[in-house]
Amino acid sequence: MSTRVAVVGATGRMGQLFLRLIDEGPDLELYAALGSRDDLEGVVGADLAVDVTVPAVSPGIVEKAVRAGIPVLVGTSGWSEPRLASLRRVVAEVDGPGVLVVPNFSIGSVLATTFATMAARFYESVEIIETHHPGKVDSPSGTAIRTAELIADARRDLGPVIAPHADQRARGQQVASVLVHSLRLPGIEARQEVVFGGSGETLTLTHDTTSQTAYEQGIRVALAAAPTISGVVVGLDQVLPLGTSR
To answer: Are 182 and 120 contained in the same domain?
Structure first.
């Protein structure tokens, strides 16, 4: 039996990619392809709703689907911890379908973030530089926010990272004590560098996305996992067999 998928944000770059992969998936069926301004009643009746819109409208779309009893796969950036906390309250209130929030569908990006959380316990100075194409409307990116939050969580017993002169605007935006610098440049798809500084050394973990094909494997994994999710689950790493203690 096929999973009927409604895609909201179908006209965007990621939306078009989802439509193609759903069309190619033997166990998937496109139920509806909606724009972010379309009537959201169009998702009612689907087995899964996919949100790949923009941060300003994403929470409303996700809440609508959850209250309609539809599990949701969120691929929109901007889901910081305060927004997730609000979503958890809605999901708990409804006591129904779950939501899988994926800041980045690239397997390589997930691995790079996992490695960063491993290194975070050994370095007190950490900064993130994330670069995307000019069309990306939010900053910092959802991947950078997620990475910073996981770094802070990994250092929970050690305290926040050292962020000298964080009050200076040129130092970047603090996310969970980690300074994040955002660049938007033509000629690039996506890049994230996590730079650790220690006594006599630095460690830099860099991940480059050169094509949207990097997201395809992760999207397939997420589409398969999302209908069975309970509660709010954040990160593709949570549905991948990474073999980490997390």
So the answer is: yes
pTM: 0.89
48 in the same domain as 32: yes
Q: Per the structure block, which two tokens stand in for 224?
A: 């398969």
Q: How far is CA 205 from the centre of its chain?
A: 18
Query: Do the bridges between strand 125-132 and strand 99-101 make them parallel or antiparallel, or are there none, so unpaired?
Result: unpaired
Alpha helices by DSSP H, the chain: 13-24, 58-67, 81-94, 107-119, 142-154, 216-225
* 199 within domain boundaries: yes
Q: Give the number of domains in the chain.
A: 2
Residues 43, 135: one domain?
A: no
| Gyration radius (Cα) of the chain, Å | 18
126: left (phi over 0), alpha (psi -120 to 50) or beta: beta
Domain extent at residue 10: 3-101+213-239
pLDDT tens digits along 16-74: 999 999 999 999 999 999 998 899 999 999 999 999 999 999 999 999 999 999 999 99
Active site residue 132: yes
β 48-51/3-8 pair status = parallel
pLDDT at 78: 84
Residues in contact with 42: Cβ distance below 8 Å, sequence separation at least 6, in sequence order:
6, 32, 34
Show the beta-strand stretches assigned E in the chain: 3-8, 28-34, 48-51, 72-74, 99-101, 125-132, 173-175, 178-184, 190-198, 201-209, 232-234
Amino acid found at 9? G
Q: How far is CA 128 from CA 14, 16, 35, 46, 75, in A?
A: 24, 29, 32, 38, 21
Buried b (16+ CB within 10 A) or exposed e, 13-24: ebbbbbbebbee
